[in-house]
What we know:
Number of helices: 4
Oligomer: single chain
Mean pLDDT: 84
Distance between the termini: 84 Å
Shape: elongated
Amino acid sequence: xxxxxxxxxxxxxxxxxxxxxxxxxxxxxxxxxxxxxxxxxxxxxxxxxxxxxxxxxxxxxxxxxxxxxxxxxxxxxxxxxxxxxxxxxxxxxxxxxxxxxxxxxxxxxxxxxxxxxxxxxxxxxxxxxxxxxxxxxxxxxxxxxxxxxxxxxxxxxxxxxxxxxxxxxxxxxxxxxxxx
Length: 180
């Protein structure tokens, strides 16, 4: 007589140990630090917030484990809730807005993912908009390489003028062209 055993899903027995969580922490914290100190830009607020919450909460869990031992494990939900509230509050108070492309000024003739764009952002607590002209190279979704650029010194063999309006801020009657 054979008994049929219920097959467990592949993830039921999979547990992520310390090294797995450390890799997640290192990736999240590394991306946040790279955005802060290099030309890498995370162009989505929610992706940036998830990376920030992940790195801060894992760091808080480890500090709690070091300071309080096993008692910190029992209070994981409280620690995570506090970290979540603090991160959301920090994001709300310090967020300057995401840079949004209003006009694609130039396209690279050799690399279709490399553009020179006029971007704007509306500040959270300020009135009006900030703007910039940057060279933006799209790496993967949500991650770009950004560099400020002077459009007066462009090589016409590399860059083609297109002046394509994108208007990602959805401004009404947006006809503004930045001056060269």
